[in-house]
Design goal:
- The complex is a heterodimer of chains A (about 350) and B (about 375).
- By secondary structure, chain A is α+β, with helices and mostly antiparallel strands.
- In chain A, about 30% of the residues lie in helices and about 15% in strands.
- Chain B has a domain of about 150 residues.
- In chain B, about 70% of the residues lie in helices and about 0% in strands.
- In chain B, helix 2 packs parallel to helix 12.
- The chains are: A alpha+beta (about 350), B mainly alpha (about 375).
Chain lengths: ~350, ~375
């Protein structure tokens, strides 16, 4: 190749590639389902009793996590193969006041966010994870899972957990207490965590009503009485009144990567509670856009294969004709003078 | 007569037996993994589900095994027959590299006894990059077996089968060009969905497949240079430097496109400053870039390129560059958030070392028993 041709080819290739940045066929973020269910976790209501952690374990048949000698409490520090839901604490300085960023503290919940456009579902090669078309629950089927753990690396919240210490381990995650054998949502019951929460910090409802409720709370004047529901957002009977705290003006999960069905509000910045700062565009939509641009209907690979087969055939067939007895007809240049016996 | 001949010599040499010991240690820990679970051997955890077994054995291992792919491109698409002496050893090395990748993916699978589920069309999720990688790598291993079959058939004297195979070989070769293009780019696309967990210096989103493919090709050509140079020394064979030097010219083009795209992405998205942040990620990026640029400096001058030693250094540098690019993107620049850390355990590393040792042993047996290396004089 001549130097000038080479430079031209380089520049051309690079330009074409860079133009591709914005133009790859992309799909939009997925939209929330009509009847998507959800949870609103209000950190300002949470008293850190961990009743939700215990109920979750009991309902889902998970063993308690014991740390050290103290066996009185479930000491789970994070989600794991044994823990779907955990309450954590944020502390700063003297930790004097609840729900304050500086010299304060706050509780935080970590469990599956049931994303509107879940990365784990997009990444799973064998559809072992899927999104229920009615409820939007991200469900898991251990019978098809191959254990590649692509869901784990894809999840922005590190939720799916593989059982590393079991030779026959599987992925474990919150399935909204509605997996086969539990089916609380299908029976009209609450998920365990929302049922036992004494303050309504973990509140069940449809995503739509929870989002409205979250925005109402954020709009409430700090110090004024506010009526909080317990269990179900639509429950008008089991309520309690409390002074509204000073909320951060951020419903985490309204827009993050296309939104989530489990949403969080708090008095401290949500990033302090283990929730990463994320853009609105879902990575699943970008990855699928790239993948479907290249492989739509397998048309491009088929054309490439046909072209390659033609070129290879042309470059190898001459050898066949010249030397039909050759055991090495893959050699494309029959008349080279090297090593011909 | 075939131009390829088995190498003379004993199989049970001292280095071979040393490799055997490493292989046995690796297999022992692999046994522990199957008996007691992944956690008993590997340090992978909730935050770092993919450790060296995925990143080295599969992602880097298959890129290092791109020699057959890269060379086939030059020979069969650009019709450069003079490189033909190099193809058979390259195909063999590719076969072992991909077999290691496939085996690595298998023993890393948390539910390996259900791996057949990825072959069932009813389970396929066409949105999944992993599906494309899995199916495509499996198909390519089959293609490599068929591409290598002539060496075996020659040895067996199966002329009938050889003649038949040669009739359809063009289609197999075409598949051998298409499939690595697909899955080597997809191995890069795996990073897209990891989103913000991948450091911005390596999260190029839509450009992931292109950057992965370009570096896989540079690694493929480099491994051909590396293997040919070492075969020349190790088996006391005639040096193929002039042939390899012209291969170096192909690398220049690939490397130039790679560097322009890579740096332009960083500049256009305003991320280049992160390279000079002085933190681990920034410094690893600079090291990676140096490993990419040094070979370019060597290859651009005909004098340097034609020195066997410098050419080998350039190839080795490129192998490290491509490997580090992958380590950086998948592990060092992968951050699941506070509270998680990962460093491979000794048993975990020994599994990888052992499997690589077995791979090299198999390669040595094959070149000594089968007509793989090119025997004729050529200049």
């Amino acid at each position: 190749m001549k130097r000038r041709d080479f430079l031209k080819a380089t520049a051309g290739g690079a330009t074409a590639a860079l133009c591709g940045i914005g133009t790859a066929e992309a799909r939009e973020n997925k939209e929330p389902l009509e009847n998507a269910i959800g949870i609103l976790y209000d950190a300002t209501l949470c008293v850190g009793c961990k009743a939700c952690v215990r109920a979750c374990k009991e309902i889902n048949g998970l063993p308690p996590s014991i740390m050290g000698e103290d066996v009185q409490y479930d000491a789970a520090r994070d989600v794991s193969g044994d823990t779907y839901n955990v309450i954590k604490v944020y502390k700063n300085g003297t930790s004097e006041q609840k729900d304050r960023e500086v010299d304060g503290f706050s509780f935080a919940k970590k469990s599956c966010m049931h994303c509107v456009d879940p990365a784990c579902v997009s990444a799973c090669p064998v559809t072992a994870l899927d999104k229920n078309p009615q409820t939007g629950i991200v469900q898991y089927n251990p019978d098809t899972c191959i254990g590649c753990r692509n869901c784990m690396v894809a999840c922005p919240y590190n939720i799916p957990q593989y059982e590393y210490n079991d030779p026959r381990g599987q992925i474990q995650k919150c399935q909204f207490c509605n997996q086969a054998g539990v089916e609380r949502i299908s029976q009209g019951l609450l998920p365990g965590c929302a049922e036992v929460c004494p303050t309504g910090a973990t509140l069940f409802g449809t995503r739509r009503e929870l989002l409205e409720e979250a925005k109402r709370r954020l709009a409430a004047k700090p110090g004024e009485a506010y009526t909080y529901a317990r269990g179900r957002a639509s429950d008008g009977l089991h309520t309690h009144d409390k002074e509204a705290p000073e909320y951060r003006q951020h419903v985490y999960g309204e827009r993050e990567l296309g939104g989530t069905q489990v949403m969080h509000i708090a008095g401290v910045p949500l990033q302090k509670l283990g929730l990463p700062e994320l853009p609105e565009r879902s990575y699943a939509s970008i990855a699928e856009g790239v993948q479907h641009t290249l492989y739509k209907g397998m048309i491009a690979p088929a054309i490439a294969l046909a072209g390659l087969a033609f070129v290879v055939k042309r470059n190898t067939s001459k050898a066949d004709q010249d030397d039909p007895q050759s055991k090495n007809s893959r050699r494309p240049e029959p008349n080279n003078d090297r090593g011909e016996p | 007569m075939s131009e390829h001949k088995p190498v003379e010599g004993r199989i049970l040499t001292l280095p071979f037996m040393f490799l055997g010991v490493l292989g046995v240690i690796g297999l022992y820990f692999l046994g522990v993994r199957f008996a007691d679970g992944l956690g008993a051997v590997a340090n992978i955890n909730s935050g770092y589900p993919w450790g060296v077994w995925v990143v080295y054995d599969v992602v880097i291992g298959t890129a290092l095994a791109c020699g057959g792919y890269a060379l086939a491109f030059v020979i069969y698409v650009f019709n450069k027959g003079q490189y033909h002496p190099l193809i058979r050893p390259a195909i063999l090395a590719s076969l072992f590299g991909y077999a290691l990748g496939g085996f690595g993916a298998f023993f890393d699978m948390g539910r390996y006894w259900q791996f057949y589920n990825i072959l069932m069309p009813s389970n396929w999720n066409f949105n999944s990059v992993m599906l494309e990688v899995g199916l495509c790598v499996m198909a390519y291993i089959l293609v490599l077996v068929i591409e290598f079959a002539p060496a075996l058939l020659e040895r067996m004297g199966a002329t009938g089968a050889l003649r038949w195979l040669n009739k359809v070989l063009f289609l197999i070769i075409a598949l051998g060009l298409l499939l690595p293009t697909m899955h080597q780019s997809s191995l890069g696309s795996l990073l897209i969905i990891m989103g913000a967990k991948v450091h911005p210096l390596w999260q190029s989103l839509q450009l992931q497949p292109l950057l992965a493919l370009l570096t896989a090709l540079t690694m493929g050509f480099s491994i051909v240079i590396f293997e040919a140079s070492f075969s020349a020394i190790g088996f006391k064979r005639r040096s193929e430097t002039p042939l390899l030097a012209s291969l170096g010219k192909v690398i220049i083009g690939l490397l130039a496109v790679y560097l322009v795209v890579r740096l332009a992405e960083l500049v256009l998205r305003g991320k280049l400053g992160l390279a000079f942040a002085g933190d681990l990620a920034g410094n690893m990026f600079l090291l990676e870039m140096a490993l990419f640029i040094f070979p370019l400096w060597v290859l651009l001058s005909p004098a340097r390129r034609n020195s066997g030693r410098l050419l080998l250094f350039a190839a080795v540098s490129l192998l490290f560059a491509g490997a580090l690019y992958r380590f950086n993107a998948f592990l060092i620049g992968y951050n699941p958030g506070p509270g998680y850390s990962y460093f491979p355990s000794v048993p975990e590393l020994m599994v990888t070392v052992g499997i690589v040792a077995i791979e090299i042993m198999a390669y040595l047996v094959f070149v000594k028993k089968l007509p793989v290396l090119h025997s004729a004089e050529h200049a």
